[in-house]
Write a structure and sequence with these properties.
30% of the residues lie in helices and 22% in strands. The protein has seven helices and 13 strands. The protein starts with 7 loop residues before the first strand and ends in a 7-residue tail after the last helix. Strands 1, 2, 3, 4, 6, 8, 9, 12 and 13 form a nine-stranded mixed sheet that branches. Strands 5-7 form a two-stranded parallel ribbon. A two-stranded antiparallel ribbon has the order 10-11. It is elongated and about 65 Å long. It has a single domain, classed as Glucose Oxidase, domain 1 (3-Layer(bba) Sandwich). The chain has 232 residues and is an alpha/beta fold. Keywords: Lyase, Magnesium, Metal-binding. InterPro entries: RraA/RraA-like, RraA/RraA-like_sf. This is Putative 4-hydroxy-4-methyl-2-oxoglutarate aldolase. It holds the Pfam family RraA-like.
Length: 232
C-alpha cells in the first residue's frame, strides 16, 4: 500500500519571471503568443472568460501559481491564496471535473484583495454576480452552483495539466477574449524577442486589408509553380 500524501503540500521555493519579463506581456493578444510558439500554447477552448459583457476585464497576464486540486476539491486553491503574490495568475487544476464550482465570489474577492491578476481553472465557477462585483478577471469551463470540498490532498507551486497543457508554476499565463495561452518558463525570453516582429507583420497586413487587399499570395504562387492547379 502506498504511503498517504500530506493533505496539503506547498512548495517553499518558487521560480518567478522578472518584472520586466512579466511586463512584456501586457496587452499582448493571445494569438500573437501562439504565433511565436509554432501556432500552439492555448488551453482547451472549453476554458473561456466567465464574463464577456463588459463586466470584467478581458485581458490578464502574469506568472502562473498552480493549485493542483483533485476533482471537486479546492484545498490547493486555498493554499495558493495563502502564498499568492501581487500579479500572480492563480491556475486551479480540477482535472477536468465539471460537476461543481472550483471557485466562487468570495474566493475571487479574496484573490482580488491579495493583488492576484487573474484566475484560470478547467473546472466551473459559481456566484456569477458576485464574481463580476469582485472585479477579478476569470476564465473557466462554465458555471455550476454545486459546492466543492476542501479535504485534499492538494499541491501548490508545482505543476498540473490544465486544459490539455502542462502548466508549471512560474510559466507566463496570458488570457483574453480568445482564450488562455501558456508560455513555458524556458521560452519566455524567446517569445518576447519575437513580439515586435509579429506586431509589425500584423499591423502591415491589417493596413493592406483595410486598403482593399483580398488576394491569397500563397495560392497564386502555388498555381504559378504547379503545386496547385485549376481543374474542370
Amino acid at each position: 500500500m502506498i504511503e498517504e500524501p500530506a493533505t496539503l503540500q506547498i512548495r517553499a521555493k518558487i521560480k518567478r519571471p522578472t518584472q520586466a519579463q512579466i511586463d512584456a506581456f501586457k496587452n499582448i493578444p493571445t494569438g500573437f503568443l501562439c504565433d511565436a510558439m509554432e501556432g500552439q500554447g492555448a488551453l482547451c477552448t472549453s476554458i473561456q472568460p466567465v464574463c464577456t459583457d463588459g463586466g470584467l476585464p478581458l485581458h490578464a497576464h502574469g506568472p502562473a501559481l498552480v493549485a493542483d486540486n483533485g476533482p471537486a476539491e479546492i484545498l490547493a486553491t486555498m493554499g495558493a491564496l495563502h502564498i499568492a503574490q501581487e500579479g500572480d495568475i492563480v491556475v486551479a487544476a480540477a482535472h477536468g471535473h465539471t460537476d461543481c464550482a472550483a471557485a466562487g465570489d468570495r474566493f475571487c474577492g479574496m484573490m482580488k484583495n491579495k493583488g492576484v491578476a487573474g484566475f484560470v481553472t478547467d473546472g466551473q465557477m459559481r456566484d456569477y454576480s458576485g464574481i463580476v462585483a469582485a472585479g477579478l478577471p476569470a476564465w473557466c469551463a462554465g458555471l455550476s452552483p454545486n459546492s466543492p470540498y476542501s479535504n485534499g490532498p492538494g499541491k501548490v507551486g508545482f505543476g498540473a495539466v490544465v486544459g490539455g497543457r502542462h502548466i508549471e508554476t512560474g510559466d507566463i499565463v496570458v488570457a483574453d477574449r480568445d482564450g488562455v495561452v501558456v508560455v513555458p518558463f524556458a521560452m519566455i525570453d524567446a517569445v518576447i524577442a519575437q513580439l515586435a516582429a509579429i506586431q509589425e507583420l500584423e499591423d502591415t497586413l491589417d493596413a493592406k486589408v483595410q486598403d482593399g487587399f483580398c488576394e491569397m499570395t500563397k495560392v497564386q504562387a502555388m498555381l504559378k509553380d504547379g503545386t496547385a492547379k485549376l481543374v474542370s
